[in-house]
Write a structure and sequence with these properties.
The complex is a heterodimer. Chain A is of the alpha+beta class. Helices cover about 25% and strands about 25% of the residues of chain A. Chain A has seven helices and twelve strands. Chain A is globular. By secondary structure, chain B is mostly helical. The two termini of chain B are about 30 Å apart. Classes of the chains: A alpha+beta, B mainly alpha.
């Protein structure tokens, strides 16, 4: 295993690659507690979902790796939009997506604020520091701060209902709560360059540019992204909608379709019929000023009791289900 | 431990196959820490869809790992890659196995996620083209193209190191 006496002429490229790979990972061993960490994080994720009241929906979506969709029609609850202006039709879709890709790259240095009716997520895209706040009106008021420290993530949970807090260090972060970007709507795109990925998606008909829309008085461009039910035995979702600012090309609002798993579905049934419901997120992009960066801090109030993370998980965030 | 059944099943799987799964994840990610993250995330996702698992969960776990690896560009946006050495530094000295490892990890970083997944599936896991296509959710022709380009890129980046790669016995090679 340590000899280097192989004659290059003896090795075809595949064998050589395989040998290099073997040498590369031969000493890799499974770390202890990796499964425990996965279980703990799964439990925590479920607790957070329950807190935000989006249970089955997000679970079902996350399970599929698929997300959202649009709307051929106009489901109730959708924000009122002005009729498209005529100049919208003249939009060059390729140009719009090129600018949107550049804006997405620019957003790497900004702070995103994603809001839905029950949750606010602040994300410093550059450092990946993230603060999640469920609204104080919720029965369980919880804030979570995730920050990179070295090669690990430090997570601080503050439970305002029970006046307790905890902190822990983990090696990876919860995959939920990704800042809303166009890329996050393209789960099957693989190109590392957003401009190329968007161009490919446009060519494949996955993304379409619907045109200008006035959104609460703001000039936006509406994109629609086909959603897939790949991996799910459910009827296909409608397409997702993404509104981007007409001047900055940053995402300002998204609409995805989510479903609650059916109460029962025969294992033999080829498709389980579900009802897709719209979920709207509002997005604001902030410059990384000192004031805005302060939004990415979380200090437990005086008088709150620090408890072990395991106790927070088990007692306050709920058992694994 | 919570939810004994699935936890015990997964614990047994990892006892038996954890090292092999992690090695594949390290090559797919690529990198030690990124590989652990990939495997841990795959485990989390498997827990979420446990009710769908019918039979050996290893296949599901591998499929999730490959999907997440191919879907990597969004994940990379969330977490900066940490690479031991840049390619130039890693390939500058071919005197030790450590250099080969660093060079391979660096070279794997140069591939697109799909190329990397195809190369790992074909040459590390020794899956057939059809099996690789099934794992990656793409056509056989796409696998051929990704493998060919990935291999060519690796050969270009690694040619001095690959020529020095140790011969592996059947027992040593593979996941």
């Amino acid at each position: 295993m340590t000899s280097y006496d192989a004659d290059p002429g003896d090795l075809d490229p595949g064998t050589a690659v395989r040998a290099s790979m073997g040498a590369c990972v031969s000493d890799i061993r499974m770390p202890a507690r990796l499964l425990d960490r996965a279980v703990s994080r799964d439990r925590k994720r479920k607790a957070r979902i329950r807190l935000t009241g989006a249970a089955g929906v997000i679970a079902a979506i996350a399970a599929s790796g698929v997300v959202i969709a649009t709307l051929p029609g106009r489901p109730s609850g959708r924000p009122a939009l002005a009729r498209p202006s005529t100049r919208l039709q003249a939009l060059d879709a390729a140009y719009v997506l090129k600018r949107a890709a550049a804006a997405m790259v620019d957003s790497d240095r900004m702070i995103s604020v994603d809001r839905d009716p029950k949750l606010i997520v602040y994300t410093d895209v550059a450092t990946q520091t993230q603060r999640v706040v469920n609204t104080p009106r919720a029965a369980d008021y919880l804030q979570v701060l995730t920050a990179i420290k070295g090669n690990n993530y430090t997570v601080t949970d503050v439970d305002y209902r029970h006046h307790v807090w905890s902190t822990s260090t983990i090696s990876s972060i919860d995959p939920s709560g990704t800042p809303a970007t166009i890329g996050s709507f393209l789960p099957l795109q693989t190109n590392a360059d957003p401009a190329v990925a968007f161009r490919e998606a446009l060519k494949a008909g996955i993304i379409t540019v619907a045109g200008h829309r006035s959104l609460n008085g703001r000039d936006t461009i509406l994109l629609r992204v086909k959603a897939s039910n790949r991996g799910l035995r459910v009827n296909p979702p409608p397409a997702s909608s993404i509104w981007i600012d007409a001047s900055t090309y940053q995402v300002v609002q998204t609409e995805q379709f989510i479903f609650h798993p059916p109460l029962s579905c025969k294992p033999s049934a080829p498709v389980c019929h579900v009802t897709w419901s719209p979920a709207i997120d509002h997005v604001t992009w902030l410059s990384p000023t000192r004031r805005n960066l302060a939004l990415l801090t979380l200090t437990p109030p005086a008088g709150f009791t620090k408890i072990p993370q395991s106790e927070m998980d088990q007692k306050y965030l709920g058992p694994i289900s | 431990m919570p939810d004994g059944g699935r936890y015990d099943d997964l614990a047994a799987l990892l006892d038996a196959r954890g090292d092999a799964l992690l090695r594949t994840a390290v090559l797919l990610a690529p990198g030690r820490e990124a590989g652990e993250d990939l495997l841990q995330e795959a485990l989390e996702r498997l827990l979420r869809k446990w009710h769908k698992v019918d039979g050996n969960p290893e296949g599901y776990l591998r499929r999730i790992m490959y999907n997440r690896a191919v879907d990597g560009w969004r994940s990379r946006a969330r977490r900066p890659e940490v690479l031991g050495l840049p390619v130039e530094a890693a390939t500058a000295d071919h005197a030790s196995g450590l250099d080969v490892r660093l060079a391979l990890m660096a070279a794997l970083q140069l591939l697109t996620p799909r190329q990397r997944a195809a190369v790992v599936a074909r040459y590390w896991e020794q899956l057939s083209e059809a099996e690789t296509a099934a794992a990656l959710g793409c056509s056989v022709s796409a696998v051929k193209a990704a493998t060919s380009r990935g291999l060519e890129a690796l050969r270009t980046a690694l040619s001095p190191d690959m020529e020095r790669a140790p011969k592996l016995s059947t027992e040593e090679a593979g996941p």
